[in-house]
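Query form — protein Beta-glucosidase

QUESTION: What is the three-dimensional structure of this chain?
INPUT:
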Amino acid sequence: MKSKKKLLNLLTIEEKAALLEGIDSWNTNGIPRLGIPKLFLTDGPHGLRKVRSAGGGFAVSDNAHSTAFPTSVTVASSWNPEYAKRMGEAIAEECNAEEVDVLLAPGVNIKRSPLCGRNFEYYSEDPLVSGKFGTAFVQGVQSRGVGCSVKHFAANSNENFRFVGNSIVDERALREIYLRAFESVVKEAKPYTVMCSYNQLNGVFASQNKKLLSSILREEWGYEGVVLTDWGATCDRVEGVLAGCDLDMPGGVWHNRKTVIEAAKTGKLPMHKLDQAVERMLGLVEQCTSKKPKGGGYNPESHAQLSCEIAKDSAVLLKNDGTLPLSGKENLLVVGEMFEKMRYQGAGSSLINPPKVITPMNAFDERGVSYIYEKGFRCFYTERDTALEQAALNAAKQADTILFFGGLSDFEESEGFDREHMKLGANQTELLNALIATGKKVVLVLFAGAPVELPFFDKLSSMLNMYLPGMYGGEAAAALLYGEVTPSGKLAESWPMHNSSTSCYADYNRSANSNYYESIYVGYRFYDKAGTTLRFPFGYGLSYTSFQYSNLSFSQSGETITVKTDVTNIGGRSGSEVIQLYVKNNRGKVFKADKELRAFTKVFLTEGETKTVELTFNQSDLSYWNVKEQRWVLENGTYEIAVAASAADIRLNASITITGEKEAVSPYSADIMAAYDKPPLSIPSAFTDLVGYPLPVAVSKSKLTIESTLAEFKRTLMGRILYTGVMHVIQKDYKKAKAMPDSLERDTRMKNSHFVVKMMPYNSIRSMCMSSGGKFTYQTAIGFAELANGNLIKGLKPLLKREKPLPLPGEQ
Ligand code: BGC
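ANSWER: The structure tokens for Beta-glucosidase are given below.
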């Protein structure tokens, strides 16, 4: 390829506009006459999802075989970012084999609520954990010449309303919580691309948010790569290019290309702005084509084995009265259809089609374990089946130990929509209660991507949380249950008892306006200070052995603070321990969380062994973002270093004094300080001052526009016809899948169509047309909106006068 500067001189405006838009769902445009190749981009994050057919934006069923790794929530529970790196390397090998240029991964959004349907795809509620795992993943993938797209930038913490929602976040929370993981990934791993989110941030769509995409990302953090839209996230494409959004995906939206060409010709889009975006796209083409080895094979079984190793090291033992590990001598009853139909990944755009799955049943049978199995409940449904329940209860009479395989299904937890509550299906809770009432030992083995309520927890003997463990998750579960491996995962998120005790409960998914009124008090930062009783604290996890901490010391060299501590395995078997370092904040001029995670490490110890572990952090990590001075401020004072086994289990501490830092004036009024001294439990009036502008109120606009959601169209007769028409088509897919014979194929198809059925009502007409690959044009969308408003003539005009698609350069 010629140099970028040369190409810029040779490209026409039409060609430049074409380079900034995809050609279909997964390919960008190339310019053959100048030897500029197209690029292939695809999902991510827990494996390669290469759709076989061209498909639409949401085609998720017809995927080529690839390794289904444990999902991000699972990997983060290993507390070992090395796994994210190795997983990234392996996925990149698969990308190379399939000639994929950019993997749409990882997702480093912060878990604000346990209800977010996409939590399984994100690492943690804590930005340090998310940042470390995201960085390692990108480093792994890009070391093999494949680009990454760190996503979804930013403050995208809910799926309901995701296409139209507005995240209202104060700048300090943004800097310290929601942007921080992105900042470290961008600075340390230099992802080839960043994917902006669907939502608005403080009233401006992320895809055209200049402050986010240019001021912060590029000017402050020094990012030089490409920003691309999430699939269908473009609102005003010219505003997007002006704000620093380079590539519009998926492709085929010629309306956007046309507006870019027109704006470039009239000067509304200055040529140097267009050229900046094109230059970055050419840079991406260069990166992807110069470093990547083409083709190449990989060993699918060794990747599957890696997925299994990660799953073993990530599962979290949450309770154990000694029933685990199993000895093999138990009279074992296994209950729950998840035993034979394990849930190992999440639903939506990350859905992988692995060549093989090892369920717990496969793994038990492979070991020759003797057990009685009763389904007890069907895993795709939440309704009770009394016949299945009775059979399980009858079988319990013969058993001394009951293993219950339960969890959430893809119908309850998925990309595209959020959960409404944290409960497990009634079919599972009722049966669990009844089995517990038999007096037999009951062990719960859980498969879910996010916390669930556990009202029966006190009466369980043991509980092993597998999260979503990937294709060989059943093998990992069996190895852990039978003690071939010692559990060593810890939760990378707090587990509240109920949804009502979460930090954003008062305003989560109440309307399209999401008030992030809890500010910096997210996850343990909230629970710690609010004094909430939790089911399990952040960082919690048990082992079959136990560890003792001793000899804490620390030293400082320049900016770096090094903390050392001895950890001894004092239990009866080898195992790994996750050591966490929190720093308790001083009481300065601004409100702060009680303590924040500053470093972590994981160490393997044989029985009786002691190792000295080192944890380091930068003194500047203790700074807060001062909105008034627009800088990080480190307050002088005393901070406590706490070495801990979880956020609620501090083993050793020491204090450190910081002096000589430049003092800053508090940016906060007395009202803000009073409202945020403790985390607020509802939206305080001071939140307006904190965000710095009047809070938008959700008013139901009388006129329907292309920004209205499909569900809003139900308000008018014509709108209802449109709504019913669209829903009918996608519900038909669901019904067709449901009618198929029981098979993996049926499950996958049902999941995929269910995801679309649930998501579609929240989709705006604009976003639908942006992601339709040209099938639902911008003009048609405008026409429909007019018709729905009862404007027959205005509506029919664009529908009847079918605008001819703008040909691509070279097609004229
Ligand atoms: C998701 C992205 C994904 C893209 C392409 C979107 O709906 O939000 O995470 O990468 O689709 O499948």
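ADDITIONAL NOTE: The longest strand covers residues 547-557.
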